[in-house]
Amino acid sequence: METTLPALAIGRVDRPAGARPAPPPLWVALLLAVAAGLTMLAAFPPYGLWWLAPVSVALLAAAAHRRRLRGGAGAGMVAGLVFFVPLLAWTNIAAGWPPWALLSTAQAAYLALLGAASAWLSPLVDRWRVLWPPLLGVLWVAQEAFRDRGPFGGFPWGRLAFSQGDAPALRVAVLGGAPAVTFVVAAAGGALVALVWRRWTPSPAPRSTAQLVLPAVGFALAAALLLAGPAAIPAAKPGGTTAVVAIVQGNVPRLGLDFNAQRRAVLDNHVRVTEQLAADVAAGRRPRPDVVLWPENASDIDPLRNPDAAAAIDRSARAVGVPIVLGTVLSGDGDTATNSVLVWQPGAGVVDRTDKRRVQPFGEYLPWRPFFRLLSSYADRAGNFVPGSGAGAVDAAGVRLGVAICWEIAFDDLVADSVAAGAQVLAVPSNNATFGLTDMTFQQLAMSRVRAVEHDRAVLVVTTSGVSATIAPDGTVTAATSRFTPDVLVAATPLRTTTTLADRLRALPEWVLLATGLAGAGAAVGARRRGRAGEDERG
User: Fold this and answer.
1) Is 406 one of the annotated active-site residues of the chain?
2) Of 131, 296, 437, 474, which has the fewest beta carbons less than 10 angstroms from its beta carbon?
3) Tens-digit pLDDT profile for the chain (539 aa)?
4) Which of the following is catalytic: 144, 356, 408, 454?
5) How distant, in Å, are the alpha carbons of 308, 326, 436 from that of 317?
6) Please, what is the Cα angle at 192 between 186 and 193, to 5 degrees?
7) Cα-Cα end-to-end distance for the chain
8) Are the beta carbons of 106 and 367 closer than 8 angstroms?
9) What are the DSSP E strand ranges found in 308-452?
């Protein structure tokens, strides 16, 4: 038996001369792709089996490995459809099934590109298996980077990082944001597939114990380090200045889209719950807040144009005796509107304002309206919202609040802009009532947990109908409401002014990883040419 250490000790895989590497059989690849989509889905809320995310990455990598580009793309497309169709089922409620199907297919197409890229890089991995973890990490970051930005401003739902709310890998966000978390999870998947991969063609040469054991041990240790190691990244120590913030979840009259026709009832619900909070404070049952948060769409009636709405809001503010930060819809030029957050001072009215900076396609506005009207009768329900002004932060009672309105929490740059504008705490006013009892609210809560760690800020999620929550800077959910019930959360909230490494680097880690991916693709060109030349010589 061989006693010298082979090239495998540094990750190189030797193949017998004349043998062409074979991919898994097609039926095996199909099963692997389906399993990849299902395990990815199970990693996300409400299931929360975060440890399945790297398993999913490994399964898809195995399905695409050594296949032709179209075969790798097919594996990615299958996995993407299995994952995104159920993950985005909540969009069916708002827009009907054709846009749901179109959106899911468009998102799955990005995984198809990832599958094709995995297939393209197969020669590099076959030659140096040690490259599998970093290459998969880079590919997943690249896929998400493109998906987060287009089309129509991007759709970041389903990023690997957003499945890691309870995982040690979440701590990596403080160093490089959500892209760094995605890289670590995908690299762990790369270590797993490198650990379990076996030849699909028999090897005529016997393999020594060292050849078999040493790489397996190395990849197992790499996977364990990537998955558990981030727990050692220190969190900021508690303490410092705090502010008492009250979150008011007023609830809606009933589920579904029809609640928008009952705008006054929604406003009255938040007025009533706030006045009850004021009574509880006066009776000593609750601590007096410094500021009160209302959710997105708490007043769909423009209080700057409707005296009745303004009077109701001011009555609430006077009762509780502190500013109310509320979400509202403000009329703009023509038939346009802005999705806005106002700071309402008792007796003085609006003293600060910020608007939604990235409005939601197919919900708040409809791109290509004539075309999509042909696909769904829901098309004309889409609004005509426009991006507004503001830095994504407001001042209320001496507290600088960063504001990410609803789906803005999914975008790295918007939250980073709020922190750069001086935000001491992050608020996520949201209106999830449109989506009923679907998983959308839990998926959005998971995003908020990543942002808490990334920016070392407490995050306050305030919704019309739940789940509203308070999140500590370490990503822990410290309190949460039930869905479709009126409720109030009052919490002493830490105010932070420090910046994390992720705050200072912004998108730089993502761009570095993208550049690394391009370099890997270029290296694969040479590996493929050498492989073809070897086949020609043997043939």
Assistant:
1) yes
2) 437
3) 333 333 333 334 444 444 456 788 999 999 999 999 999 999 999 999 999 999 999 999 999 999 999 999 999 999 999 999 999 999 887 667 777 898 999 999 999 999 999 999 999 998 889 999 999 999 999 999 999 998 888 999 999 999 999 999 999 999 999 999 999 999 999 999 999 886 544 555 566 655 567 778 889 999 999 999 999 998 877 778 999 999 999 998 865 544 445 788 899 999 999 999 999 999 999 999 999 999 999 999 999 999 999 999 999 999 999 999 999 999 988 889 999 999 999 999 999 999 999 998 877 777 776 676 666 666 666 678 999 888 899 999 999 999 999 989 999 999 999 999 999 999 999 998 878 888 999 999 999 999 999 999 999 999 999 899 999 999 999 999 999 999 999 999 999 999 999 999 999 999 998 888 888 777 777 666 665 544 433 33
4) 356
5) 14, 11, 29
6) 90
7) 32
8) no
9) 324-331, 337-345, 349-355, 393-396, 399-403, 425-430
The residue count of the chain comes to 539
Q: Which of 60, 88, 92, 86 is nearest to 75 (CA)?
A: 60
**Distance between alpha carbon 72 and the CA centroid of its chain, in Å?**
25
C-alpha dist (Å) from residue 222 to 38, 444, 529:
25, 31, 30
Place of tokens 């410290």: 478
Q: Structural domains in the chain?
A: 7-234+507-538 (no CATH), 242-356+388-500 (3.60.110.10)
The C-alpha atoms of residue 214 and residue 218 are separated, in whole angstroms, by 6
Which bin fits 152, alpha (ψ -120 to 50), beta or left (φ > 0)?
left
Q: Which of 144, 237, 275, 296 is catalytic?
A: 296
Paired tokens of 284: 């000593």
What residue type is assigned to position 481 of the chain?
A: T
Q: Is 296 a catalytic residue?
A: yes
Please pick, among 144, 364, 406, 454, the residue that the annotation labels catalytic. Answer: 406
Residues 480-510: b if buried by 16+ CB within 10 A, e if exposed = bbebbebbbbbbebbbbeeebebbebbeebb
The owner of tokens 């504008």 is 421
Residue 156's contacts (CB-CB under 8 Å, 6 or more residues apart) are: 144, 147, 148, 162, 410, 411
Q: What is the dihedral sign for C-alpha 63, 66, 72, 74? A: negative
Element (H, E) at 158: none
Q: What is the DSSP letter of 285?
A: S
Question: What single string gives the DSSP state of each residue in 468-503?
Answer: -EEE-TTS-EEEEPPTTS-EEEEEEEE------HHH
The tokens describing 247, both together, are: 């979150």
Query: How much is the pTM?
Result: 0.90
Whether the upstream peptide bond of residue 174 has omega within 30° of 0, thus cis, is: no
Q: What token pair was written down for 487?
A: 């409720």
